Amino acid sequence: MNASTGTVETRSGTPAPRSGTIDPKEAAHFGRLAAEWWDPRGESAMLHKLNPVRLAYIRAAIDRHWAEAGAARKPLAGRSAIDVGCGAGLLAEPLARLGARVTGLDAAAENVAAAQAHAEAVGLTIDYRNVDVEKLEGETFDLVTSMEVIEHVTDPAAFIAALERALAPGGLMLLSTPNRTPMSRLMLVEAAERLGQVPRGTHDWHKFLTPEELTALLKDAGLTVTDTRGIAWDPLKGLHLSDNLALNYLMTVVRG
User: Fold this and answer.
1) Which pick of 3, 53, 157, 184 has the fewest CB atoms within 10 Å?
2) Has 106 been labeled as part of a binding site?
């Protein structure tokens, strides 16, 4: 905390406002999808196709980061995790099954209610909260995830600074977001939304971040990218991990 200004600073000394970065219009948009979030044939169909790809990357990153995790059935046992922008829990629930004590944050109260109901129905205990990550006070987590969220916030730098504050010493951060390329504009904004795989109005292509831009923002917050992988699509494989970053990408991030 900078006593003279009242602002919170990142470890690199840059100011990080405590105000939330969620756009109310974005929260309202995703809140309207709450009832269909768990329907693999509904308006969130693309997320259901994307989730196994993300989970494969996440599990590999966990195994690399914590040496003992690779041999464990529940590699996150004894560890805490937070999923920022959790929606109705598509990622939070698998993290809980991997053994983590999971907190899920979402700006839409409707999503939090849907997530809580689904977790209770399948017998999982997850701490879901309708709160911005910037409003967390003093809580840190071994694993911080935020999937397909940063392209929806009003201030990406402030959002990343808040994620950094939530990361425990020695912890692991995993992010994913679309790249700002002609390919992503065609596939994610034009094709996916027009074909009903993603709800209309979900994406603003101009708010997508390139890997270079996101890496620079992370560096400014005192964080280091240790791995980047693309999520690509083709008619035979569907969505899959790839060296091609043109459509979407995942990042492994640590402090320092």
Assistant:
1) 3
2) yes
CATH of the domain at 59: 3.40.50.150
Residue 54 counted as an annotated binding residue: yes
Assigned token pair, 51? 């989730």
**Is 222 annotated for ligand binding?**
no
220 a known binding residue? no
In a domain, 127, yes or no: yes
pLDDT digits (tens, 9 = 90+) for 122-138: 999 999 999 999 999 89
* DSSP-assigned states of every residue in 225-253: EEEEEEEEEETTTEEEEES--SSEEEEEE
Handedness of CA 134, 49, 186, 253 (dihedral sign): positive
Kindly report, residue by residue over 215-230, the tens digit of the pLDDT: 999 999 999 999 999 9
Domains identified in the chain, total number: 1
pTM: 0.85
Nearest CA among 208, 19, 29, 231 for reference residue 132 = 19
